[in-house]
Amino acid sequence: MATDPVNPLEKQAPQDGPAASAETAPGHLVEFDQVVKRYGDHVVLDNLDFTVERGQHVTLIGPSGSGKTTILRLLMTLERVSDGVIRVGGEPFSHVLGADGKLKPAGEKHQRQIRKKIGMVFQQFNLFPNMNVLQNITEAPVNVLGVDRAEAEERARELLELVGLREKVTAHPTQLSGGQQQRVAIARALAMRPEILLLDEVTSALDPELVAGVLDVLRNIAHTTDITMLCVTHEMSFARDISDTVLMFDAGRVVESGSPEQIFTEPAHERTRGFLSAVL
Ligand SMILES: Nc1ncnc2c1ncn2[C@@H]1O[C@H](COP(=O)(O)OP(=O)(O)OP(=O)(O)O)[C@@H](O)[C@H]1O
Predict the structure, then answer these.
(1) pLDDT confidence tier of residue 125, bands split at 50, 70 and 90
(2) pLDDT tens, residue by residue, 188-217
(3) Which of 39, 199, 204 to mutate for ligand 1's pocket (most ligand atoms within 8 Å of CB)?
(4) pLDDT of 23 strictly over 50
(5) Which of 131, 191, 223, 256 is a plausible cystine mate for 135, CB 3.0–4.6 Å?
(6) Is the four-CA dihedral 186, 189, 194, 199 of positive or negative sign?
(7) Residue nearest atom 24 in ligand 1 by C-alpha distance
(8) What is the pTM of this model?
(9) Where does this polypeptide localize (predicted)?
Protein backbone atom coordinates (compact mmCIF):
# COMPACT_ATOMS: atom_id res chain seq x y z
CA MET A 1 0.00 0.00 0.00
CA ALA A 2 1.35 3.45 -0.87
CA THR A 3 1.81 5.62 2.19
CA ASP A 4 2.40 9.29 2.61
CA PRO A 5 6.18 9.66 2.84
CA VAL A 6 5.89 12.63 5.19
CA ASN A 7 3.74 10.78 7.67
CA PRO A 8 3.82 7.03 7.23
CA LEU A 9 1.75 6.45 10.34
CA GLU A 10 -1.27 8.40 9.28
CA LYS A 11 -2.75 5.56 7.27
CA GLN A 12 -2.80 2.34 9.20
CA ALA A 13 -3.16 -0.81 7.09
CA PRO A 14 -5.93 -3.11 8.24
CA GLN A 15 -4.57 -6.06 10.20
CA ASP A 16 -5.63 -9.69 10.20
CA GLY A 17 -7.74 -11.46 12.79
CA PRO A 18 -8.79 -9.94 16.08
CA ALA A 19 -6.77 -6.78 15.48
CA ALA A 20 -9.04 -5.86 12.57
CA SER A 21 -12.17 -6.14 14.67
CA ALA A 22 -10.58 -4.08 17.43
CA GLU A 23 -10.26 -1.18 14.97
CA THR A 24 -13.98 -0.67 15.24
CA ALA A 25 -14.48 -1.93 18.76
CA PRO A 26 -16.26 0.62 20.93
CA GLY A 27 -15.00 1.74 24.31
CA HIS A 28 -11.54 2.13 25.70
CA LEU A 29 -8.50 0.99 23.78
CA VAL A 30 -6.78 -0.09 27.00
CA GLU A 31 -8.51 -0.78 30.28
CA PHE A 32 -6.97 -1.85 33.57
CA ASP A 33 -9.81 -3.15 35.72
CA GLN A 34 -8.94 -3.74 39.38
CA VAL A 35 -5.52 -5.04 38.38
CA VAL A 36 -3.33 -6.45 41.11
CA LYS A 37 0.30 -7.48 40.64
CA ARG A 38 2.14 -9.15 43.48
CA TYR A 39 5.59 -10.56 43.84
CA GLY A 40 5.22 -12.83 46.86
CA ASP A 41 3.78 -10.59 49.57
CA HIS A 42 4.89 -7.42 47.82
CA VAL A 43 1.89 -5.71 46.20
CA VAL A 44 3.25 -3.73 43.25
CA LEU A 45 -0.06 -2.77 41.62
CA ASP A 46 -2.92 -2.35 44.02
CA ASN A 47 -6.40 -2.71 42.48
CA LEU A 48 -5.38 -0.44 39.65
CA ASP A 49 -8.05 1.12 37.43
CA PHE A 50 -7.28 3.32 34.47
CA THR A 51 -8.17 3.61 30.80
CA VAL A 52 -6.51 4.84 27.64
CA GLU A 53 -8.61 6.02 24.71
CA ARG A 54 -7.74 5.53 21.06
CA GLY A 55 -5.31 8.22 19.91
CA GLN A 56 -4.65 9.44 23.45
CA HIS A 57 -1.15 10.10 24.77
CA VAL A 58 -0.95 9.08 28.39
CA THR A 59 2.16 9.57 30.51
CA LEU A 60 2.86 7.73 33.74
CA ILE A 61 4.92 9.62 36.29
CA GLY A 62 5.81 8.87 39.89
CA PRO A 63 8.60 7.79 42.20
CA SER A 64 10.90 4.88 41.52
CA GLY A 65 9.24 1.57 42.39
CA SER A 66 5.68 2.89 42.11
CA GLY A 67 4.81 0.28 39.45
CA LYS A 68 4.98 2.22 36.16
CA THR A 69 7.21 -0.20 34.26
CA THR A 70 5.23 -3.15 35.57
CA ILE A 71 2.16 -1.78 33.79
CA LEU A 72 4.00 -1.76 30.45
CA ARG A 73 5.45 -5.21 31.11
CA LEU A 74 1.96 -6.58 31.79
CA LEU A 75 0.78 -5.17 28.46
CA MET A 76 3.73 -6.80 26.70
CA THR A 77 2.87 -10.09 28.47
CA LEU A 78 6.31 -10.11 30.02
CA GLU A 79 4.42 -10.43 33.32
CA ARG A 80 1.03 -11.81 34.27
CA VAL A 81 -1.61 -10.15 36.45
CA SER A 82 -2.13 -11.62 39.91
CA ASP A 83 -5.75 -10.48 39.87
CA GLY A 84 -8.11 -8.27 37.88
CA VAL A 85 -8.45 -7.92 34.12
CA ILE A 86 -6.67 -5.98 31.40
CA ARG A 87 -8.66 -5.31 28.21
CA VAL A 88 -7.26 -4.13 24.90
CA GLY A 89 -9.72 -3.03 22.22
CA GLY A 90 -12.52 -4.23 24.51
CA GLU A 91 -11.16 -7.81 24.60
CA PRO A 92 -9.85 -9.31 27.82
CA PHE A 93 -6.13 -9.43 27.27
CA SER A 94 -5.04 -11.23 30.37
CA HIS A 95 -8.05 -13.56 30.39
CA VAL A 96 -10.38 -15.39 28.03
CA LEU A 97 -14.08 -16.07 28.43
CA GLY A 98 -14.61 -19.76 29.30
CA ALA A 99 -17.56 -21.94 28.18
CA ASP A 100 -19.06 -21.36 31.63
CA GLY A 101 -19.15 -17.61 31.00
CA LYS A 102 -16.35 -16.95 33.50
CA LEU A 103 -13.02 -15.33 32.73
CA LYS A 104 -9.96 -17.54 33.06
CA PRO A 105 -6.27 -16.73 32.53
CA ALA A 106 -5.45 -16.42 28.84
CA GLY A 107 -3.12 -18.81 27.06
CA GLU A 108 0.00 -17.79 25.15
CA LYS A 109 -1.75 -17.83 21.75
CA HIS A 110 -4.48 -15.41 22.79
CA GLN A 111 -1.96 -13.07 24.36
CA ARG A 112 0.25 -13.16 21.26
CA GLN A 113 -2.69 -12.24 19.03
CA ILE A 114 -3.57 -9.20 21.08
CA ARG A 115 0.07 -8.25 21.59
CA LYS A 116 0.35 -7.68 17.84
CA LYS A 117 -1.48 -4.42 18.49
CA ILE A 118 1.27 -3.24 20.82
CA GLY A 119 4.75 -1.93 20.11
CA MET A 120 7.27 -1.16 22.81
CA VAL A 121 10.50 0.80 22.99
CA PHE A 122 12.66 -0.06 26.00
CA GLN A 123 15.47 1.76 27.81
CA GLN A 124 17.95 -0.54 26.10
CA PHE A 125 17.60 -0.51 22.33
CA ASN A 126 18.31 -4.25 21.88
CA LEU A 127 18.89 -4.06 18.13
CA PHE A 128 20.08 -7.24 16.42
CA PRO A 129 23.86 -6.63 16.23
CA ASN A 130 24.41 -8.83 13.19
CA MET A 131 21.77 -7.07 11.08
CA ASN A 132 21.93 -3.67 9.44
CA VAL A 133 19.37 -0.95 10.13
CA LEU A 134 17.00 -1.93 7.33
CA GLN A 135 17.11 -5.60 8.33
CA ASN A 136 16.47 -4.69 11.98
CA ILE A 137 13.32 -2.83 10.99
CA THR A 138 11.96 -5.32 8.45
CA GLU A 139 12.75 -8.56 10.27
CA ALA A 140 9.56 -8.78 12.34
CA PRO A 141 7.09 -7.43 9.75
CA VAL A 142 8.38 -9.99 7.24
CA ASN A 143 8.86 -12.96 9.55
CA VAL A 144 6.11 -12.41 12.13
CA LEU A 145 3.39 -10.61 10.17
CA GLY A 146 4.23 -12.09 6.75
CA VAL A 147 4.49 -8.70 5.05
CA ASP A 148 5.99 -8.77 1.56
CA ARG A 149 9.70 -7.90 1.82
CA ALA A 150 9.64 -5.10 -0.76
CA GLU A 151 6.67 -3.50 0.99
CA ALA A 152 8.35 -3.85 4.39
CA GLU A 153 11.51 -2.22 3.05
CA GLU A 154 9.57 0.67 1.53
CA ARG A 155 7.88 1.30 4.84
CA ALA A 156 11.17 0.95 6.72
CA ARG A 157 12.68 3.69 4.56
CA GLU A 158 9.69 5.94 5.27
CA LEU A 159 10.06 5.31 8.97
CA LEU A 160 13.78 6.01 8.82
CA GLU A 161 12.89 9.34 7.24
CA LEU A 162 10.47 9.98 10.10
CA VAL A 163 13.18 9.33 12.71
CA GLY A 164 15.79 11.30 10.74
CA LEU A 165 18.04 8.38 9.77
CA ARG A 166 17.40 7.94 6.09
CA GLU A 167 21.13 7.78 5.31
CA LYS A 168 21.75 4.95 7.81
CA VAL A 169 19.89 2.20 5.97
CA THR A 170 22.92 -0.06 5.62
CA ALA A 171 24.70 0.88 8.85
CA HIS A 172 25.13 -1.71 11.59
CA PRO A 173 24.16 -0.90 15.21
CA THR A 174 27.80 -0.63 16.32
CA GLN A 175 28.27 2.19 13.80
CA LEU A 176 25.48 4.25 15.40
CA SER A 177 25.35 6.42 18.50
CA GLY A 178 23.02 5.38 21.33
CA GLY A 179 20.55 8.06 20.24
CA GLN A 180 20.58 6.82 16.67
CA GLN A 181 20.13 3.23 17.85
CA GLN A 182 17.13 4.29 19.91
CA ARG A 183 15.65 6.06 16.88
CA VAL A 184 16.04 2.81 14.91
CA ALA A 185 14.32 0.99 17.79
CA ILE A 186 11.42 3.47 17.52
CA ALA A 187 11.19 2.84 13.76
CA ARG A 188 11.34 -0.89 14.38
CA ALA A 189 8.43 -0.73 16.83
CA LEU A 190 6.36 1.37 14.41
CA ALA A 191 7.09 -1.00 11.52
CA MET A 192 4.72 -3.51 13.15
CA ARG A 193 1.91 -0.95 12.75
CA PRO A 194 0.97 -1.13 16.41
CA GLU A 195 -2.22 0.49 17.63
CA ILE A 196 -0.45 1.40 20.86
CA LEU A 197 3.13 2.48 21.33
CA LEU A 198 4.60 1.84 24.79
CA LEU A 199 7.64 3.90 25.72
CA ASP A 200 9.58 2.89 28.82
CA GLU A 201 12.07 5.56 29.88
CA VAL A 202 13.48 5.49 26.38
CA THR A 203 16.16 8.10 27.06
CA SER A 204 17.38 6.81 30.44
CA ALA A 205 20.31 4.88 28.97
CA LEU A 206 21.49 7.72 26.73
CA ASP A 207 24.28 10.21 27.19
CA PRO A 208 22.70 13.58 28.03
CA GLU A 209 23.62 15.19 24.71
CA LEU A 210 21.70 12.49 22.79
CA VAL A 211 18.46 12.78 24.75
CA ALA A 212 17.02 15.82 22.95
CA GLY A 213 17.23 14.24 19.48
CA VAL A 214 15.28 11.17 20.55
CA LEU A 215 12.66 13.24 22.39
CA ASP A 216 12.25 15.49 19.33
CA VAL A 217 11.54 12.43 17.18
CA LEU A 218 8.91 11.27 19.68
CA ARG A 219 7.39 14.75 19.93
CA ASN A 220 7.06 14.78 16.16
CA ILE A 221 5.38 11.35 16.16
CA ALA A 222 3.05 12.42 18.96
CA HIS A 223 2.07 15.64 17.25
CA THR A 224 1.77 14.45 13.65
CA THR A 225 0.25 10.96 13.95
CA ASP A 226 -2.80 9.52 15.61
CA ILE A 227 -1.02 6.62 17.28
CA THR A 228 -1.96 5.91 20.89
CA MET A 229 0.94 6.31 23.31
CA LEU A 230 1.49 5.08 26.83
CA CYS A 231 4.72 6.51 28.11
CA VAL A 232 6.80 6.15 31.27
CA THR A 233 9.24 9.00 31.54
CA HIS A 234 11.31 11.01 33.98
CA GLU A 235 11.51 13.84 31.40
CA MET A 236 8.87 16.17 32.75
CA SER A 237 9.03 18.80 30.01
CA PHE A 238 8.59 16.04 27.42
CA ALA A 239 5.62 14.65 29.39
CA ARG A 240 4.16 18.14 29.41
CA ASP A 241 4.59 18.53 25.66
CA ILE A 242 3.13 15.26 24.44
CA SER A 243 0.52 14.19 26.97
CA ASP A 244 -3.22 14.50 26.85
CA THR A 245 -3.35 12.93 30.29
CA VAL A 246 -0.76 12.47 33.02
CA LEU A 247 -1.21 9.78 35.65
CA MET A 248 0.69 10.27 38.88
CA PHE A 249 1.51 6.93 40.55
CA ASP A 250 2.46 6.11 44.06
CA ALA A 251 2.70 2.64 45.60
CA GLY A 252 0.90 0.93 42.73
CA ARG A 253 -2.06 3.28 42.58
CA VAL A 254 -3.00 6.38 40.61
CA VAL A 255 -3.03 9.16 43.17
CA GLU A 256 -3.94 11.88 40.69
CA SER A 257 -4.68 12.21 36.98
CA GLY A 258 -5.32 15.18 34.76
CA SER A 259 -4.10 17.32 31.89
CA PRO A 260 -0.42 18.27 31.93
CA GLU A 261 -1.41 21.85 32.85
CA GLN A 262 -3.37 20.60 35.83
CA ILE A 263 -0.74 18.16 37.06
CA PHE A 264 2.32 20.34 36.51
CA THR A 265 0.81 23.72 37.37
CA GLU A 266 -1.79 22.98 40.00
CA PRO A 267 -1.24 19.48 41.40
CA ALA A 268 -4.03 18.68 43.81
CA HIS A 269 -2.39 15.83 45.70
CA GLU A 270 0.32 16.34 48.26
CA ARG A 271 2.22 13.32 46.91
CA THR A 272 2.27 14.85 43.41
CA ARG A 273 3.51 18.17 44.78
CA GLY A 274 6.29 16.41 46.69
CA PHE A 275 7.32 14.34 43.68
CA LEU A 276 7.34 17.30 41.29
CA SER A 277 9.26 19.52 43.64
CA ALA A 278 11.94 16.81 43.81
CA VAL A 279 12.25 16.31 40.05
CA LEU A 280 11.53 19.72 38.48
N1 LIG B 1 10.58 -9.59 38.93
C2 LIG B 1 10.38 -8.94 40.07
N3 LIG B 1 10.42 -9.57 41.27
C4 LIG B 1 10.20 -8.92 42.42
N5 LIG B 1 9.90 -7.61 42.51
C6 LIG B 1 9.84 -6.92 41.36
C7 LIG B 1 10.06 -7.53 40.09
N8 LIG B 1 9.92 -6.57 39.12
C9 LIG B 1 9.63 -5.43 39.76
N10 LIG B 1 9.58 -5.63 41.11
C11 LIG B 1 9.28 -4.61 42.11
O12 LIG B 1 8.08 -3.98 41.74
C13 LIG B 1 8.09 -2.61 42.13
C14 LIG B 1 7.68 -1.76 40.97
O15 LIG B 1 8.70 -1.80 39.97
P16 LIG B 1 8.56 -0.96 38.64
O17 LIG B 1 9.80 -1.23 37.84
O18 LIG B 1 7.25 -1.21 38.00
O19 LIG B 1 8.58 0.53 39.20
P20 LIG B 1 8.76 1.90 38.42
O21 LIG B 1 7.74 2.82 38.95
O22 LIG B 1 8.77 1.66 36.95
O23 LIG B 1 10.21 2.32 38.91
P24 LIG B 1 11.38 3.12 38.13
O25 LIG B 1 10.87 4.51 37.92
O26 LIG B 1 12.54 3.05 39.08
O27 LIG B 1 11.64 2.36 36.86
C28 LIG B 1 9.50 -2.33 42.66
O29 LIG B 1 9.46 -2.35 44.07
C30 LIG B 1 10.30 -3.49 42.15
O31 LIG B 1 11.35 -3.80 43.01
Answers:
(1) very high
(2) 999 999 999 999 999 999 999 999 999 999
(3) 39
(4) no
(5) 131
(6) negative
(7) 64
(8) 0.88
(9) Cell membrane
